[in-house]
Amino acid sequence: MHVLVTSLNYKSTPVEIREKFTFQDDLTPALEQLRQSKSILECVIVSTCNRTELYVVADQVHTGRYYTKLFLQEWFEEPKENFSHHLQIREDEHAIEHLFRVASGLDSMILGETQILGQIRQSFDTAREAGTTGTVFNHLFKQAVTTAKRAHSETKIGENAVSVSYAAVELGRRIFDGFDDKKVLVMGAGKMSELTAKHLSSSGVTDITVMNRTKEKAQELAQRFTGRAEGMDRMNESLQSTDILISSTGSNDYVIRKNEVKDLLKKRRGRPLFLVDIAVPRDLDPELAELDNVYLYDIDDLQGIVNANLEERKEEAEKIELMIEEELVAFSHWLDTLGVVPVITALRSKASTVQEQTMESLERKLSSLSEREKKVIRKHMKSIINQMLRDPITALKEVPQEDNADELLQYMTKVFALEDHIEEGESPLTHDIRINKQEREWSIQERRTRLAEKKEALVRTFLS
Questions:
Q1: Among residues 49, 175, 457, 459, which one is catalytic?
Q2: Which runs of consecutive H residues, i.e. helices, occur in 278-430?
Q3: Which of 70, 162, 178, 226 is deepest in the core (most CB within 10 A)?
Q4: Percent of the chain scored above 70 by pLDDT?
Q5: Catalytic residue list contains 43
Q6: Which domains does the chain have, with CATH numbers?
């Protein structure tokens, strides 16, 4: 069996194609239909604004690839030629690594974002409730979610702003040491203003005013964040009480000029005014920076913050890459046990059956045995069997480390005549998910060495 992921994502697929392949309230029936496809043993569907990904366990690679494509074509009623060249398909080790990277935010448009982790967890929960996951995905997705949680708790990848709108909010937070009792004016009602309002709200801002030329649009945005809406004709009145203004309109000319603000500064009685212009072309007159108690930042200032923070996130991402390498090796070790466990279980089951049958025969032939005598005999028989099984079971546990593991498992199954004791679907020879543990372990050592060298270089820089 093999793990595959078939992906339409923001890196390979334009939005006009991605939007045709999104699942809304129909995820459970989609999962059930995909699971019923030939060769598909388990499946999970992840559907977000930036990606639609089908994770499947398939009995064969080529049929798994074919039927996931066919499912997309039939479910969305789109000809294959319209989307197949955008598909990214990964198999086995590469598919598993991709899942870990996605869950940890390393494959996101904004490096290190955490929203995708919740979406992965929800997708897995939905698939599990629909009954489309099994042994492999129940283990793999739980491990991916746990790894992602570790990645965000043990590194600082999510602490620095890497979007302009978020950087504007973060800058305001630093300058004012928080947003307690601060009045914020968001100028504009487009996408950038919406993101800004969202970041402000999640940062604890409770007093948000949205201002736009079309007041109806301002009202629509303000209502989503329990804010107020104003038309542009209320600019002067709003600026008298505003602490922070973040502007992103579609104007081709300055919306606020130096003279307009200069005239109302006296009414502010020396209170600082923090202005952030994230519009292109700019909304705010650059000469505003010349006024006392007015602090103006434009998109170039913020981009510098974003670039610096992105470099810091990349440093933290390397630590997460190391975690993922280690988790892949751990998953590989777990996979190895899948082939051994059914044989060990069957061996113990057969031994237990032999013990019970022998005991029943003894009781029939020696009907005078007391309960105490039966208990003693049963105990000693069990001891003999456990001693006889100890060496074979120890040898079985070492089989996965051998190059000819499948042949050895077949041999052991034949030697002990276990064919009838291994339950259907638990064949020790069903998994063929390959992860090169030796290469991964070398990579882990290389990453550890590289991180140690960087840390040492930083210490030397600091001391000098």
A1: 49
A2: 299-365, 371-398, 405-415
A3: 162
A4: 91
A5: no
A6: 2-154 (3.30.460.30), 164-292 (3.40.50.720), 331-437 (no CATH)
